[in-house]
Amino acid sequence: MDSEVEAAESAQEGAERAPSNGILLAAVGVVWMAAMLWSARATITGRADVEMEVTSTAYALPGAISASLVAGAAVALAVLAFLTRGGRTPGVTVRFIIATGAGLGLGALGALSIITINTEGWLYAVVGGTVAAAATIGGALAGLRYPRVIAAVCWGAVAVFVVGFVLNYLQDPLLSALGSGDTAASQTGAASWFALLQSVLSGVAGAVVAYRVLRRARRRSGSDVRWPFYALAGAGPGLLLIVGEALTRTAGSRVLELAGKVSELELTVQQMLSGSRLNNGLIVLFVGAFTGMIAVGRTMGSPAAAPAPAPAPASPPVDPDAIEQEARADEPSTATRPAP
């Protein structure tokens, strides 16, 4: 019985995602990761002194980690979609191993692009190892039981990146609109409002995109996931941001520590950026989860009302005179009563 259930679940998963969608998501993820790594390499190698190289590496690390998480998951989903074509259904353990291996392979390629900046120092080896770890973790996530939810989270993370890119491009006019002026207090207040606006819009956009991906998968496969998974998909981009920040603070901690030793100002900046990234991830998580619940709640109809019972037929009105006449008719007549 258990084997039949697993086979049905595997067949359902194979019908949930078409290979073309897996390839499109993988292409977007790989392009995003490659762009972040290329930007990091160009920024690092373009610095004239060692101190600027260190600080540039610390600034580029969080973005490269986030992109590697999504790219690792996206590539692993595409590999699994290819392997499950034609009714082939690998087991849970085999699927997890394949997904993790796909993420590790992509992470190794990404790490190579960073390590080759300077193969003699440990700094770039740490960055490359962190990038590889992020892609491997993303691939492992793709090996979980609900691939359509992971795909929705990846698309939501792409939407969060796009919103952040557009808002940063429009940062100057937005800061002016938020009250940034010549004083330091106004600039600080406008920057705080800008960060909050970016986090909220990113959470909403990521959740809406994730919701649309799940609804499209429902139309294609004819089956749907339970409503808590919509909330999980909406919160997924925020979870990825928090995981990326955790990797930055653990696997990449030596890079941040070295950057903090450049100057007291740089140490303060790194601490502020770390706290800002964590706050951003938390806001995106909670706003995304709330938006996902609202989106799926609007499509859940109220239960049908039970039909009202049919009214009982009305009884005819009671006539007291008729009852009395019937009682007299039932009594024996005195004329036919036997004599004593």
From TrEMBL:
The keyword Translocase does not apply. Residues 301-340 are annotated as: Disordered. Residues 306-319 have a biased composition (Pro residues). The chain crosses the membrane at residues 22-40, 60-84, 96-115, 121-142, 149-170, 190-213, 278-296. Keywords: Membrane, Transmembrane, Transmembrane helix. This is Zinc finger and BTB domain-containing protein 17. It comes from Actinoplanes friuliensis DSM 7358.
